[in-house]
């Protein structure tokens, strides 16, 4: 048996050597592609979601197994992340500090090889990208339990940035502490949304422990790392980065707890064939206004996936609707619908056409 085991491991080592050789050969072509991109358009984004989606789709559709297709996605995300770093540095601004769920979403989108820049507010994420200090920005837009992030919507009113992509992240909350013992926790810190999403568990299992709201789940983990009597509700990544132990995992009340994040950039991504378009529309508060807005999309057979209203803040009784629809702005039916919508509203701003979360 030992002889058979050694032989199998020897073959695996040979395959690993071949995989390494092929990765480096692949990297030489990646570097050449980066050079060609810069020659043709010095200001273009090196990151190309359409090409990434094409690679993943091709590999997963041809995968004979037993290696799982979901794992192919994860492996190639990191291969492409490392490859992109060879083409040029990719800086990603996100709502920090480290180990927030926005940080997790950023890593899910861009992999380990990107350069991550934590900032203290959603406005600062927009500013970093607008001023060219970051190639991309990642901001939360809505949670399946707590609803929309209004400040993100408001920022789009005046920002020139486009939506470059989206990330849908399953949010799992863990109770963390230095010791890992629940009985030693005398106070619990977390972001207000996290506390709200774990309300039932907290009331049942730690009813007498006071809860304190802080700016982020990562900040809660940092505070717990400095106080042995404190607990924090945060991510598994936060436990790793701040040296904490998991007291209880997955304490969120709703197991289907997802947060959607938007990727921001100065330029638009290429069309992929599975895209989403976001539009901001201003209308007067009058009978039938919303119906007039929605009818062109329905008439063109375009599926609407989200609509959210906000006061315009510029004039009383005017509202701005943020609308997500399936399809790309370059499609003829989309052009027709948007032209019709534009003729019926006070103003319209296309926030971007981008790959829908896969």
Task: Put the structure in a nutshell.
Helices cover 41% and strands 26% of the residues. With 358 residues, the protein is an alpha/beta fold. It has 4 domains: 2-87, Chorismate mutase (Chorismate Mutase Domain, subunit A); 91-171 and 258-265, D-Maltodextrin-Binding Protein, domain 2; 174-248, Periplasmic binding protein-like II (D-Maltodextrin-Binding Protein, domain 2, 3-Layer(aba) Sandwich); 275-355, ACT domain (Alpha-Beta Plaits, 2-Layer Sandwich), CATH 3.30.70.260.
Task: Explain what the structure shows.
The protein has helices spanning 2-40, 49-62, 69-87, 101-110, 122-130, 150-155, 192-197, 199-205, 217-225, 236-241, 289-299, 332-342; strands spanning 91-95, 115-119, 136-143, 147-148, 162-170, 174-177, 187-190, 211-213, 230-234, 245-248, 258-265, 275-284, 304-311, 318-326, 347-355. The radius of gyration is 23 Å and the shape is globular. The mean pLDDT is 89. It is of the alpha/beta class and 358 residues long. The protein has four domains: 2-87, Chorismate Mutase Domain, subunit A (Up-down Bundle), CATH 1.20.59.10; 91-171 and 258-265, 3-Layer(aba) Sandwich (D-Maltodextrin-Binding Protein, domain 2); 174-248, 3-Layer(aba) Sandwich (D-Maltodextrin-Binding Protein, domain 2), CATH 3.40.190; 275-355, Alpha-Beta Plaits (2-Layer Sandwich), CATH 3.30.70. Helix 1 (2-40) packs across helix 3 (69-87), helix 2 packs antiparallel against helix 3 (69-87) and helix 11 packs antiparallel against helix 12 (332-342).
């Amino acid at each position: 048996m030992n002889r058979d085991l050694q032989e199998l491991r020897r073959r695996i080592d040979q395959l690993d050597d071949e995989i390494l050789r092929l990765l480096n050969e692949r990297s030489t072509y990646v570097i050449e592609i980066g050079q060609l991109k810069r020659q043709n358009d010095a200001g273009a984004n090196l990151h190309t979601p359409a090409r990434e989606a094409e690679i993943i789709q091709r590999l997963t559709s041809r995968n004979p197994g037993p290696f799982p297709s979901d794992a192919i996605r994860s492996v190639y995300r990191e291969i492409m992340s490392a490859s992109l770093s060879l083409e040029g540095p990719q800086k990603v601004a996100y709502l920090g500090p480290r180990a927030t769920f926005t940080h997790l979403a950023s890593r899910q989108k861009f992999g380990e090889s990107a350069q991550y820049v934590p900032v203290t507010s959603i406005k600062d994420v927009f500013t970093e990208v607008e001023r060219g200090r970051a190639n991309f920005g990642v901001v939360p837009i809505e949670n399946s339990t707590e609803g929309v992030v209004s400040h993100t919507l408001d920022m789009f009113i005046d920002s020139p940035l486009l939506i470059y992509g989206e990330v849908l992240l399953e949010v799992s909350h863990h109770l963390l502490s230095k010791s890992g013992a629940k009985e030693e926790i005398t106070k619990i810190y977390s972001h207000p949304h996290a506390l709200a999403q774990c309300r039932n568990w907290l009331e049942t299992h730690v009813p007498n422990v006071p809860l304190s709201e802080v700016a982020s789940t990562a900040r809660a983990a940092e505070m717990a790392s400095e106080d042995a009597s404190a607990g924090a509700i945060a991510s598994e990544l936060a436990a790793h980065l701040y040296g904490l132990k998991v007291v209880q995992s997955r304490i969120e009340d709703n197991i289907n707890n997802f947060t959607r994040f938007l990727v921001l950039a100065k330029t638009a991504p290429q069309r992929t064939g599975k895209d989403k378009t976001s539009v901001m529309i201003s209308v007067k508060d009058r009978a039938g206004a919303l119906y007039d807005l929605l009818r062109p999309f329905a008439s063109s057979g375009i599926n609407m996936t989200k609509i959210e209203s906000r006061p315009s803040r510029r004039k009383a009784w005017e509202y701005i609707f943020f609308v997500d629809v399936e399809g790309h702005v370059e499609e003829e039916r989309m052009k027709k619908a948007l032209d019709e919508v534009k003729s019926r509203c006070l103003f319209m701003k296309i926030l971007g056409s981008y790959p829908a979360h896969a």
